[in-house]
Design goal:
Blueprint (H helix, E strand, L loop, with lengths): L1 E6 L5 H11 L3 E8 L2 E7 L5 H8 L5 E6 L4 H15 L4 E5 L4 E4 L27 H4 L13 E7 L2 E16 L4 E15 H12 L14 H14 L5 E4 L6 H10 L8 E5 L5 H9 L17 H4 L4 E5 L6 H13 L1 E2 L8 E2 L3 E6 L3 H6 L5 H7 L2 E4 L10 H20 L10 H9 L5 H15 L7 H11 L17 H16 L6 H8 L3 H10 L4
Parallel strand pairs: 10-15, 10-16, 11-12, 12-15
Antiparallel strand pairs: 1-3, 1-4, 2-3, 5-6, 5-9, 7-8, 8-9, 13-14
Length: 532
């Protein structure tokens, strides 16, 4: 029986109450004392609440005696256990001797299987026992005084084990100071899927639906409709397009619209890492695979993206060795960690992208043809910005609005969003944009950052675009067979050159300065080629 005794705040009253209990020879299992309240867990066969009240009636200051379900410490422990049981990841608390103090319900998934002739054990049966009796590969030796993490595999499933030491402070009366001592450890087992989702959220926490892809031109509308159909098919997708056309944006929209949207989306640029680092990033490595390898090994992106999508950007930059290893993986989705011997099975979707002509690379023997057909089950070809000028107004206004917000936040100002004049829009539409949407975004951010208020005019754009004019694309190569003579070839070149540069330098004097000739010559050539 558990009772709470309310009393007045009188010195010695708690001792008198406990003395009464001792005199009756009742079995006191637990006692907790808080100001004006004494909580008692007592056991006795014939004990009743009325008998306790009768015994305590002689103690001056006792106000009431009531039955309770739990002592305060038991209630706190119950609430803490309920909190732990809501955690989806297994959590185990052990003392400094490696004995299990507490576990949550999720630890059931780690519970070892027992023989059919033995009774099935519950996680409660393991309390007070060594951790290695519950998990054979984990013992007291791996517990340290510092927080560590390592990869472990339990019942065929990979986890990242986070070990956090529990530090207790002890006061020393003689030394007049406090010392800290490790009294145990908390073990948190994070599944690869959970870890992958966390990394995915860190990579990007924005909305990446097809609605976030800006554009109403015919080409981009067809791309969005095609991509939405592809999202429903759980097959590899190859996205091609020039640098800056938004290949990763399409890949993320594909994932978000698919049945795998709740699982991780992880991306890696294959041109950003050397071969050996890219291999370990993709496939992970086993413990001791090489000098400096983490103890217990490290999972790769394929493992972390379990159930989700892995985006391989710039796939053409992958070395021949990794191309062969990736091909082997795509055949049956099995792989091994670097330096490992265990065969692992992945459940992921591969989406790849490249700005290079893979067909040309295949003919040059620098990209495997068999890998190309594995990756190119479904294909999306993104148009460059110069082929979707109908979207320029939408894109420009969006980038100007985003840039204005960033500038206002950094300067703690409230400057209204500048507007784009018709002449400025025409100037943007006349530029070839070799860097595509990414270049447009950077140019407009620079213009907004330099803007002192008011509309963005052509003159404002020219200050930034002049720096980009050196990279202006002057159209396709000249058709050799169509050339009649030197004069016609020169005239064709002049027409292309002036047609693309004139919107950037709308006066003859500015264009003459850009080409280092007299303005009279520029005026003559503009008239000659009927460029206005």
């Amino acid at each position: 029986m558990r009772v709470v005794i309310e009393s007045s705040d009188r010195i010695g009253i708690s001792q008198e109450i406990l003395a009464i209990f001792a005199k009756q020879a009742w079995n006191l299992k637990a006692v907790e004392i808080i100001s004006c309240f004494t909580y008692v867990h007592v056991e006795y066969a014939a004990l009743t609440l009325s008998s306790i009240r009768e015994c305590l009636a002689s103690v001056a200051g006792v106000k009431s005696v009531e039955i309770i379900n739990l002592l305060p410490s038991e209630q706190r422990e119950s609430h803490l256990q309920a909190l732990l049981d809501k955690m989806p990841e297994p959590i185990i608390d052990v003392d400094n001797n490696g004995l299990i103090l507490a576990m949550n319900k999720a630890s059931n998934k780690l519970k070892p299987s027992t023989a059919s002739i033995e009774p099935e054990l519950t996680i409660t049966d393991y309390l007070g026992k060594p951790i290695d009796a519950f998990l054979g590969q984990i013992n007291k030796v791996i517990l340290s005084n510092a927080a560590t993490s390592q990869a472990v595999t339990i019942k065929g499933k990979a986890y990242i084990l986070d070990i956090s030491p529990v530090v207790s402070s002890h006061s020393s009366t003689l030394a007049q100071n406090k010392t800290e001592q490790v009294s145990g450890s908390v073990l948190l087992f994070r599944s690869m899927n959970t870890l992958g989702r966390q990394i995915s959220l860190m990579q990007s926490h924005q909305d990446h639906s097809f609605d976030s892809i800006i554009g109403e031109s015919k080409s981009i509308s067809l791309i969005k409709a095609q991509s939405q159909r592809f999202a429903e098919l759980d097959l590899p997708v190859l996205i091609s397009g020039e640098t800056g056309t938004g290949k990763e944006l399409i890949a993320r929209a594909l994932h978000q619209a698919s049945s795998r949207s709740k699982a991780p989306f992880l991306a890696i640029n294959c041109s950003a890492l050397p071969e050996h680092l890219l291999e370990s990033e993709l496939f992970g490595y086993a413990g001791g695979a090489f000098t400096g390898a983490q103890k217990g090994g490290k999972p790769g992106l394929i493992e972390l993206a379990e159930g989700g999508c892995l985006f391989l950007d710039e796939i053409a930059e992958m070395s021949p060795y990794l191309q062969a290893k990736l091909l082997r993986f795509l055949q049956d989705l099995t792989y091994r960690r670097v330096g490992g011997t265990k065969e692992l099975l992945a459940n992921i979707r591969i989406v790849s992208a490249s700005h290079q002509d893979l067909a040309k690379l295949i003919s040059q023997k620098t990209f495997r043809e068999d890998l190309y057909y594995r990756l190119n089950v479904l294909s999306i070809d993104l148009p460059p910005l110069r082929e979707r000028m109908a979207d320029m107004n939408l894109l420009a206004n969006l980038f100007i609005e985003n840039a204005a917000k960033q500038v206002n936040n950094s300067q703690q100002a409230d400057i209204p969003k500048p507007k784009l004049t018709a002449q400025a829009l025409s100037l943007l539409q006349g530029f070839a944009w070799p860097g595509n949407i990414r270049q447009l975004q950077n140019v407009l951010f620079s213009v907004v950052a330099l803007n002192s208020g008011g509309d963005i005019c052509a003159e404002d754009l020219l200050q930034v675009l002049n720096k980009h004019a050196g990279n202006q694309q002057l159209g396709s190569d000249i058709d050799i067979q169509a050339i009649k003579d030197w004069s016609s070839a020169q005239a064709e070149f002049e027409t292309k050159l002036l047609t693309q540069l004139h919107p950037l330098f709308p006066t003859t004097r500015k264009l003459a300065e850009r080409l280092s000739v007299s303005h009279n010559k520029i005026a003559m050539k503009l008239r000659e080629h009927d460029i206005k």
